[in-house]
Amino acid sequence: MIELNGLTKRYGDKLAVSDLTVDIRPGLVTGFLGPNGAGKSTTMRLILGLDKPTAGRATIDGRRLVDCPAPLTEVGALLDAKGVPGGRSGRDHLLALAASQGIGRRRVDQVLELCGLGDAARQAFKTYSLGMGQRLGIAAALLGDPKALILDEPVNGLDPEGVLWVRGLVRHLAHEGRTVFLSSHLMSEMAQTADHLIVIGQGRLLADKPVEQLLSQASETATRVSSPQIADIIRVLGQLPGVNVTIESSDSLVLHGLAPLPIGQTAAAYGWVLSELTPIISSLEDAYLGLTEGAVDYRSTALV
């Protein structure tokens, strides 16, 4: 388990991470979300001991990673897939990492095959595409067969097959009981991959909840209704206390404040014909934007 206790990092006047306290538990894929500049990369660097915290601690199974004799067997990380010398082959890069930890050549070949780089293993890194570089970075993270994985934007540059592969890989690793902590700006992908979410903004914790709970809290009770009797529906249901109506077309509307069941029961009583009765559920993107609305450092302006 990765534990952050009061983790704080300040760069001069900039407070990058502020008193962050969370547990990242094994057996789950934990997603890490936040706007640009929220402190996600800094947090990951603090966990890995690449930066020193101003206050607080980041530990893996009770120890700082810098105190572990073989860190690659504790945590595998992908932070910057481009940090490989251009003239070095993918296999030589992994061999150098393996030698530093006493890991055998057989394991190098195993992770190259697992990540789909067997045929490209001896090519120079400068010839790798963005997606191939990502795959090599993931291979490096898996090299020590670690208990925990920290992956920053792991699907960046991958094609659809690669995205599906990463999704299956991280879920498999979590199912094995490992701790998986990954960041992404792709909300649709995070919704399909993560079990739990940690959301930060301006270095502060905004949410630490299961995906389902975050979505349910963000969702209002609303139902889309399509019917040839729209005028009757508005007359009967649109006047109820707490109900608001959004008309979408001549035969479709949204009833805010009503769930499908009472609408269906009323329709049966009045003999209305319903061609659609669909609950409206907020997406992860909706929930995320609602959480981070007041914690965005960089805002775009409308085109003029």
Q: Your description of this structure?
A:
The chain has 304 residues and is α/β, with parallel strands linked by helices. It is built from eleven helices and 13 strands. It has helices spanning 40-47, 71-74, 90-101, 105-114, 130-142, 160-175, 187-193, 211-218, 230-237, 260-270, 284-292, and strands at 2-11, 14-24, 29-33, 55-60, 75-78, 148-152, 179-183, 196-201, 204-210, 222-226, 244-249, 252-256, 276-279. The mean pLDDT is 89.
Can you give me a brief rundown of this structure?
By secondary structure, the chain is an alpha/beta fold.
Structure keywords:
26% strand, 13 strands, 11 helices, elongated, 6-stranded mixed beta sheet
Q: Note the gap between the termini.
A: 49 Å
Coarse structural class: alpha/beta
What profile does the largest beta sheet have?
6 strands, mixed
Give helix and strand order, one letter per element, not per position. EEEHEHEHHHEHEHEEHEHEEHEH
Radius of gyration: 24 Å
Outline, from the CA principal axes? elongated
Instruction: Tell me the β content.
Output: 25-35%
Count of alpha and pi helical runs: 11
Helix content: 25-40%
Give the mean pLDDT: 89
Looking across the biggest beta sheet, what order are the strands in?
5-6-7-3-8-9
How many beta-strand segments? 13
Low-confidence stretches: none
